[in-house]
């Protein structure tokens, strides 16, 4: 009973994941979180530095938000990922070299994945199966099976 | 622009599922993958964004390494070491203080989340052979800069350190001010705390253990960022 419920939840999650750029959004959210973690400067100091210091917090927060938006509103993924990649690159200047480079890397990767994602694709064909099929077709053709091939 | 890159890879991007896709290939694949249609990342489409983004990131890194572009730092909550062979600054202040870590920080240990620190503020500083390392448990993240002819410059540099050593020389130093009356670097400490300030400062063989550092703008010529077994 519980086993079936779990399988149902997993299938539901699988289906939910299939309908959105899951890894892209997740990576971007994580990147924003990572950069915020490396900062953690006391708020007093941030107030002292002023607007520039604030930007150091604003950009990673925006990154995390965009990541969540990609996950929960995937139809707008182009806008989110374009803004996300610009903001991710901006953190290099404002937030500890983009969270010591790690956050920047995750963010840009996430945005590229979200940008390149398309819904409703054919299932993936591994290169090996594709090659095998090609060989099978090449073998079949000389036997005079052209008529039935298509 | 957004729709163009997926056009050339027609091979397996039929827009509507029922338009007679080549028979053998999808059938075999469908049995393998359970036969459902899922969203998926198209490599060529992702590359449209990945290539320019990589170029821009590389450009930023190069500009920073040349010292043409300033970057901001705000670090705290974990101890890290900063060393420099030479520090020259104008507008120097120093006073005691208490740093609070974030609630439930794993770095707190038995300190109750508070660290006694010396806050140093320097309005404009140039540092020679800057080296900064953070212990990440086992490995160290090492940032070095300013080893070449051009030095690292920082403005609005504020550090909270637990340890500070070096050969220091001050010019026009005032010792024993109240921390709330400081004027030289634009930072004010808590009232009733001992402090000192000076017009210029020179520290040779600087070594600091910091808990927090912020700089309005850091220029890091010759920037190198790498992981290493040993710290600075």
TrEMBL record, chain B:
Transmembrane spans: 46-69
UniProt entry tagged with the keyword Membrane: yes
Residue stretches of biased makeup (Polar residues): 10-24
Keyword Transmembrane: yes
Cited Pfam families: DUF6230
Region: Disordered, residue numbers: 1-38
Alphabetical UniProt keywords: Membrane, Transmembrane, Transmembrane helix
InterPro entries: DUF6230
Name of the molecule in the record: Cholesterol esterase
Organism: Streptomyces filipinensis
Record lineage: Bacteria, Bacillati, Actinomycetota, Actinomycetes, Kitasatosporales
